[in-house]
Write a structure and sequence with these properties.
The protein has 385 residues and is mostly beta strands. The protein has a single domain (5-374), classed as YVTN repeat-like/Quinoprotein amine dehydrogenase (Methylamine Dehydrogenase, Chain H, 7 Propeller), CATH 2.130.10.10. It has 2 helices and 31 strands. Strands 3, 28, 29, 30 and 31 form a 5-stranded mixed beta sheet that branches. Strand 17 (206-213) and strand 18 (216-223) form a beta hairpin.
Length: 385
Amino acid sequence: MSPLEVRKSVPRARLVLGGALFALVVGLAGPTLSGAFGATGRPAEARSTGGVGILNGVSCISAKSCVAVGYRGDRTVIESWDGTAWTIVPSPDRGLSSALFGVSCSSGGWCVAVGDYAVSSGQRALIESWNGGAWLVMRSPSLGSAGAELLGVSCVSARACKAVGGYGGGALIESWNGASWSVVPSGSAGSQRMQLDAVSCPSAGSCVAVGNRASATMVESWRGGSWSIVPSPTPGTYGGLSGVSCSSVKWCVAVGSYSTGTGSGASAPGRTLVESWDGTTWSVASNPGPSIAYLFGASCASVKRCQAVGEYQATSGLFRALIESWDGTAWSVAPNPSPLVAYLYGVSCHSAKTCEAVGQFTNKVSGAGPADVLVESWNGAAWST
């Protein structure tokens, strides 16, 4: 078993609180991540090596051009959408095992995907780029022996990208200037455990990153050449933010989950959390999420059109795909053709009428058994597979 396999069997922690997993995690409540492979939704190509298939992130520059990233078994997987079909694109791997968690494309000739890879001494940050012809591993800064991973990335152009994650129990931010990656000081300080899960840059001079710090939500903002903490609310007792999307410097949506529990085991299930930025403050937005549910990704085509994706616990006790939609006035749960057991981790909307959401599924009644990549699409009226 490779060093990353245990961690990768839990694709996303529903709440990361004080550095520990709180309540249930995907790998416990969901499918047993081993065995054969298949696909559902718009069929994503299955890599011949088999193993668990998961798509964690997606980026669309048009209705006919999207890139999704994740891993299959202990190797990276990158898939491309041309408006007709998803196909696997050869992607490089490093170390004993590799995984990709986020991707951002500023054009058809420039994409960046981030994740991590394992060596005998721990995890290292992994950055790969698409130059229009091939995916290549990029040189990233050496961070010594402490484990590092990158979970989210946002590129305004081929000369301006920001990537975020965690390193040695603290937040990690890296910046690309068109020639090299460098570690940028984070606005989060102190001994509290923290992690940044996602970043969104509406312009080269403005970015927002979200995550959690000491069991509370954390938001950092890039303005004027430095990162700083921006106050954000945390409902209940514990909370964290997993996804963010900014359609402008004055409009962002961040999603995650919170709990009113004590932090002991599954004392209180997670609830969906949506927060919005109006250019001045972050505030909690009312949303109709099911009683046990989690949101992992968000994408806003405009101030009036956003989609958020995650999972919820059905009456059967199994988890199914969850999609919530913002129409400029209120959030609502959007019907979607979720397989029997499914999770959505990332979403990208090129316009109000075109979105792609990605994750993982299994159709076993027990909730155990073969799990593979899931893709769902939005045409402006309904979600379909």
